[in-house]
Amino acid sequence: xxxxxxxxxxxxxxxxxxxxxxxxxxxxxxxxxxxxxxxxxxxxxxxxxxxxxxxxxxxxxxxxxxxxxxxxxxxxxxxxxxxxxxxxxxxxxxxxxxxxxxxxxxxxxxxxxxxxxxxxxxxxxxxxxxxxxxxxxxxxxxxxxxxxxxxxxxxxxxxxxxxxxxxxxxxxxxxxxxxxxxxxxxxxxxxxxxxxxxxxxxxxxxxxxxxxxxxxxxxxxxxxxxxxxxxxxxxxxxxxxxxxxxxxxxxxxxxxxxxxxxxxxxxxxxxxxxxxxxxxxxxxxxxxxxxxxxxxxxxxxxxxxxxxxxxxxxxxxxxxxxxxxxxxxxxxxxxxxxxxxxxxxxxxxxxxxxxxxxxxxxxxxxxxxxxxxxxxxxxxxxxxxxxxxxxxxxxxxxxxxxxxxxxxxxxxxxxxxxxxxxxxxxxxxxxxxxxxxxxxxxxxxxxxxxxxxxxxxxxxxxxxxxxxxxxxxxxxxxxxxxxxxxxxxxxxxxxxxxxxxxxxxxxxxxxxxxxxxxxxxxxxxxxxxxxxxxxxxxxxxxxxxxxxxxxxxxxxxxxxxxxxxxxxxxxxxxxxxxxxxxxxxxxxxxxxxxxxxxxxxxxxxxxxxxxxxxxxxxxxxxxxxxxxxxxxxxxxxxxxxxxxxxxxxxxxxxxxxxxxxxxxxxxxxxxxxxxxxxxxxxxxxxxxxxxxxxxxxxxxxxxxxxxxxxxxxxxxxxxxxxxxxxxxxxxxxxxxxxxxxxxxxxxxxxxxxxxxxxxxxxxxxxxxxxxxxxxxxxxxxxxxxxxxxxxxxxxxxxxxxxxxxxxxxxxxxxxxxxxxxxxxxxxxxxxxxxxxxxxxxxxxxxxxxxxxxxxxxxx
Length: 859
Fold this sequence. Notes:
Elements: H1 2-16, H2 19-37, H3 40-45, H4 51-69, H5 74-79, H6 82-87, H7 92-113, H8 116-124, H9 129-156, H10 160-179, H11 181-184, H12 186-189, H13 194-201, E1 204-206, H14 207-232, H15 239-261, E2 264-266, H16 277-284, E3 292-298, H17 307-324, E4 328-334, H18 340-349, E5 354-357, E6 365-368, E7 370-376, E8 379-383, H19 392-404, E9 410-414, E10 423-425, E11 430-432, H20 436-442, E12 446-450, E13 462-466, H21 473-483, E14 489-492, H22 527-533, E15 536-538, E16 542-546, E17 561-565, E18 586-590, E19 595-597, E20 603-610, E21 615-619, H23 620-623, E22 624-626, E23 633-635, E24 651-660, E25 663-670, H24 678-686, H25 695-706, H26 713-716, H27 726-770, H28 776-858
Parallel strand pairs: 3-4, 9-12, 9-13, 13-14, 14-25
Antiparallel strand pairs: 1-2, 3-7, 5-6, 7-8, 10-11, 15-19, 16-21, 17-18, 20-24, 22-23, 24-25
Helix pairs in contact: 1-7, 2-4, 2-28, 4-9, 4-10, 7-9, 7-14, 8-28, 9-10, 9-13, 9-14, 13-14, 14-15, 16-19, 27-28
């Protein structure tokens, strides 16, 4: 080792005392900085990582490794010092090790300049240090492997230039193998560097990747050693290629074995690759004779809003493949709109592209594939699209659970006025589609429709009853017959279903209503007594309001829109002891009711969700003005929100469980039907910023808990987050806030002008009406003239205000774009100067020292 270090020291001094060597370093780090920070895609992706550089880094290293290694052996031959090296009292292994250590030291020193990239990212965000550690570890291992291969080219020739070309060609083979799977096949592609390199650059430390790079480096050094020994030995060289071949076979076998071990360490601080215990249990439970196949169709380019989702999905698929071994077979196909893969996705699984736009809005729309099919035997679950608001791990794990189980659990949905399965809507005289919650439940359960017109005798894993208060007394009795058996039920009731205010028609409960002169429907059942028998107190006309609203953009929402979150003042807005609500963050209820414990002996009532301390209760008649003829109506603008006495943190959802006499109860009651309406599913799919409501998650958790199938409850709440460019997001939020304020100011100004015009008109009319010298017809003509004059003034003023509003918006957008562009320029300048300047200064110092020595030598 002493001899190897001496040789390495000699080559390092020769490299770092040559100004020409710094040119290669400057080109190397300049290319790295350019590909990472000079592209607009870096800012569009909005991720605090080095993903853009990682895509091209293997190809950059090809050039740099060949440049570093081209003189290791060829220079010795060119200067005639190779014979001297061979006659030194050192072993061939020491010679190869010394040369390799020198090349590795040069590469590591050059790579050290790229550490300034972390500083550049820190200017915009808080980069994940674990991810950065894994990324640079991947850079070191990749460079170490390719350097040993590039040295082979220098060993074969005397020309440094030819050595560079051969070294680059040799390094190109393992790099291109990993990037051309479609051309070389999956088997050959597994021998490429891309898979192992990607593990480290995404924050995963895998034993297989370490074994791959170590094996590749060992193979390159073995070839160097064999060629060096060939120069010493003039005969008996037949065993050298055999030894190299045996080493190659050993390296490949070691990589395969380590790959099957599945040992992977999540290096990221955010736990991006930490698969949950539920997912591990699901994978472990897959029968060995019934493996699961996942065919994913993923676009290579996605809009900014979906970059993080795509990265999470690809990372998860790799983790599942490593965790599942032979029980989980995954194939990822890069898919574009006009490709053969797109036709295959449509023909086999009905997976189609989704047309998405960028967050900025004006940059067009893109057809994106982000779907997968999970199959096992004859069972199949298709995920048409992984929406950004839904955890990919939840979707895939749930699908694997479904296809690997022999039988699905059964969920029944009671037929009520809510019409979850769709039907004809008399208020609109149009057919209505099924609710999104039904389609969501079908992904996991066997969902059936249950009629309430006869006693329900069939046992189900869960029975869901939306709006039981809309049932007739006979239907309600049939439902109670089922509930009293202690079978699990989920009840969603609502004093005012705002999605369709005619459901249940609260103002007519207990009465009769005809429509268009037809036969009035049967009287509604007694919902109060129904809930009292379950150990709950429920007043069908009570509506909860709460002044807590954490969203500045939603300040115009009425206070009957109740936000449930940790800031609402309640001691426990979410019950932390229940798995249903323990991991929830925020929910929103629309004109919901209020629950109380009925103090029934033997039945325990556990609150799950509570409104805040600044809440109260209004009656239905105070909130809603009804039309007794057509069943429609509207909000009462004169209602007063005065905190109700005796109401402390109203209960919005609760679980009742126990036995009272002959009645057994296992029910979850939710006081709002609207919390699973279509708009919340859309918000969940799109993942709208700052509107990440857990409404859908809560209902699905309720069903799972009642069905005693809690394996996916924690998964729904998992939100792996990549670190983003926070400075850019702050700039956007400030712009949005300023734009919102300017829009409100313009609206207030317009409203003020309208009020002034109305006041002028009213004053003018009063003056005309008070005149006694005019007849009624003349007065009417003058009033009409005044009205037209004031309307013209108001129209002109409105156009002026609208123009001012558009100018203000355009000005704020221009200011926003200017701030963003300034940040872009700062980052680009910092990236270039921060990486190139240190190397340039070092080169100038070396050059000045060399010139000084030459001048001193001449003297």
